[in-house]
Write a structure and sequence with these properties.
The complex is a heterodimer of chains A (125) and B (108). With 125 residues, chain A is mainly beta. Chain A has strands at 3-7, 10-12, 18-25, 34-39, 45-51, 58-60, 68-73, 78-83, 92-98, 101-105, 108-112, 119-123. Chain A has no helices and 12 strands. Chain B is mainly β and 108 residues long. Chain B has no helices and 11 strands. In chain B, strands 2, 4, 5, 6, 9, 10 and 11 form a 7-stranded mixed sheet that branches. Chain B has a 4-stranded antiparallel sheet with strand order 1-3-8-7, with no helix packed on it. Chain B starts with a strand and ends with a strand. The chains are: A mainly beta (125), B mainly beta (108). Chain A binds chain B through residues 33, 35, 44-47, 50, 59, 61, 95, 99-100, 102, 105, 108-111, 113, 115-118, and chain B through 34, 36, 38, 42-46, 49-50, 53, 55-56, 87, 89, 91, 94-102.
Amino acid sequence: EVLLVESGGGLVQPGGSLRISCAASGFTFGSYEMNWVRQAPGKGLEWISYISSTGGTTHYADSVKGRFSISRDNAKNSLNLQMNGLRAEDTAFYYCTTDFHVTLVRGLPQGIDYWGHGTLVTVSS
Amino acid sequence: DIQMTQSPSSLSTSVGDRVILTCRASQNISIYVNWYQQKPGKAPKLLIYSASSLQSGVPSRFSGSGSGTDFTLTISSLQPGDFATYYCQQRYTAPRYTFGQGTKLENK
């Protein structure tokens, strides 16, 4: 069974830092590109960061560029997001996701798209 | 950035209804659209990829169509478990994805 389990969320003051993580199991983590997607309470989905399977390529949404840093440890099957300079508007559930792709399963195409359950980050004084 | 605009933002519907949700991209994105269903307190679930391909395990009452800038998600006969929020997502500029703002299906 594929599992993505986020951890590390919590309450942090504006301007503070937080590191959230995602523990992966049930698939070959080191072969998958990964993303972080967030969702403010009661709001829509926002992609915020991507990392290639080796960690050599990263991308960020403009809203977090320069403040957030994505990384991974393939030996430990873990994905991380270091968040600095946090703002009230960063308050959200943060989801770890595999990067979507299509593969063949028993000869038939299937979309591969796994999501964790999310971890809540609250930025407030 | 490519903007994805969904309509309507909410829809009052009933079990058995045929439901059509729309999503418009701000530029041509070919067929690079996914559709997701999200229920309260849960992660989004992939329903449709590449505009019209049904994800494995998703009931056949869900279907997608469109290309270019205009896309639709159709639920042929709404079931009780289908009351949820639906999001479209463009993959044309992968991995810089953007989502629509969502359409919430409410029980009339």
